[in-house]
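Model it.
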Amino acid sequence: MGASLPPKEANLFKLIVKSYEIKQYKKGLKAADAILKKFPDHGETLSMKGLTLNCMDRKPEAYELVKLGLKNDLKSHVCWHVFGLLYRSDREYREAIKCYRNALRIDPDNIEILRDLSLLQAQMRDLAGFVETRQKLLTLKPNHRMNWIGFAVSHHLNSNASKAIDILEAYEGTLENDYPPESERCEHGEMLLYKISLLEECGLFEKALEELRRKESKIVDKLSYKEEEASLLMKLNRLEEAEKLYRLLLVMNPDNYRYYEGLQKCVGLHSETGQYTSDEIDKLDSLYKSLAEQFTWSSAVKRIPLDFLDGEKFREAADNYVRPLLTKGVPSLFSDLSPLYNHAGKADILEMLILGLEESLKKTGGYPGRSEKEPPSALLWTLFYLAQHYDRRAQYDTALAKIEEAMQHTPTVIDLYSVKSKILKHAGDFTAAAALADEARCMDLADRYVNSMCVKRMLQADQVPLAEKTAVLFTKDGEQHTNLHDMQCMWYELASGESYFRQGELGRSLKNFVTVEKHYADITEDQFDFHSYCLRKMTLRSYIEMLRFQDRLHAHAYFRKAAAGAIRCYIKLYDTPPKTSTEEDNELAKLPASQKKKMRQKQRKAEAKAKKEAEVKSEEANVGGGSKHGKRNVKAVDPDPHGDKLLQIEDPLMEAGKYLKLLQKHSSDHLETHLLSFEVNMRKEKILLALQALKHLVQLDAENPETHRCLVDYHIVFYIHSCTMVCLKFLRNVRVWILCFSDLHYVICRFFHKVASRPAPTTDAEKLILGVLEAERPTFRSSFFTFCISNAFFFV
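Modeled.
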């Protein structure tokens, strides 16, 4: 490094490197300029100057200098390493890996380059290369703990847990008996727990338990020790010992649901499906009654029995659970009990129970069977629960009546207004829901949650400008809307994107959906720093868990919604492409003079409004751009705030395909993924891929109306484009072999029969929908049968 320079310049070069490491970039730049005065073609100095400029946000100059330095000294590992660092700073990891490999060809034993390469390989999941690099690091520096641990982790990630165990055991063989010292006990204990988790992963439960108990004195995290011991004992079928441990853990934390589940497994009373025999229910009931006597303050021990009890026992347990919470006034009671509504019959029992409590409170002021009076708020929270109950059961009129009664009882409780807003949203009145949510917000201007719910309701009502003004009330002064992006406020961006889509503003909608996708890219990038940090701090179990979470990151609901929204935007853009300026001019020329004048005025107003918004944002940036040290924090201005450039693409379906691949890879068990796949592939005229999507739709939910629509669309389009008898024979075979029916006419009739045989509608919205279906059914049948008669061989 700097070996070709005279001693004075060589020392200056070392100063450049040191200044870069301690972030004194101006000092390093000055030293680089001093060297380049005498040696203007020195490659390593040019590269280091470029790296320093890169840290000063002068990227074009940085790339130019680094490339020039590499050109002047192609055989310098420093130049290649710096080029790799430059690519890494721009998240061009594959290019950075290439540069590091070129540097290692010149200096194969360079520890720093090997370490940087291993971090990139872990980031890109190049697991075979990660193992190779970590082995090289261990060979070069075997006395460094981090190299042993990194080598073990690399094998674990490469699906070779047994080899990782061997490496950790070899590392322990290098330690002295009195290791670790007091300052390293936590890190060493974490390493031991990681090793035991590897043994468990390999199925070596007996050896893992033996190792755990042998190293008990060296493990600092005693809670993890007990949890691991209980888990291993249960897997070894030593249930009595495991039961004692789980009971001990419950004494430590009687509200941990996992401990109750472990205890149930130990006594042979656990079911993955949640279905139990009557004998098992009786045993579970007695078990939890005994636990309730021991843990009187635990809410979990009272709530869990509601999941498996039924009939009169369920009613009694629910009554005992609900009464204290209604008296205390717990707003989250319905959220707590809402999973029970998926159990047959339990919603009816809860309804009868709460109605009985309401009636008793109104008549006597107390609960049934008790002489003590309850506080007046008990009736309020009973009505509050009933409103949510009827909302869940889609009985919106009754729900509104109950919440109105509660508001008359105590008109100052904010939760009542929030729930009424939610009921109105479910009933379809988004404007009224937004107005009520805003009323709730005004009752407590310091509550961020209520403010956020108000913003969400406004976006659902397509009141985007008002929602933006309300949202920025809780952002930093001066940054406003930009701050929502910096905070990765994805629920806001998704709701905003959906609202713009409904209003037909595809550019703004697509901008929000793409922004959410970028947040997930940032989350993926954020793992980079942990590759070295976790190995250094020995948080190995959490590190492995984090990497596995990152691998399934794109299966998250928010990403799925954003990707689906972007695909819908691209499909709509394909179906209705924006008009060119020539087409707009031609249309404008055909209009009368009065309408032309109005159109021009409208365009001028829109341009003036956009200019004013840009000026306001610029002023906000100038006001909020200063730090407490007096320096300006200049933020990059978004060149495309309204997403207009996103619409200027040649092939919208190709862009949609990029998101579709991610959905198919990570969310293949969701109906919407295959619906979108069907729509995209039908537009691309890729009939077999559309058929594949249709097959998945039928497998996931054959009764879904969207599945039915896709079935009909596929057959009609296939007929129109394929009139040969061979293709029609193929279509018939597809129906029988893949889609499991022989006659499209039969499918359509069956669908309408199911619509007619559904339970009678209860709400006005349901009556309206069913009325439309009934009105359309004869028309559809008539037109469809006309098509069938004129094309009889279509149904061969």
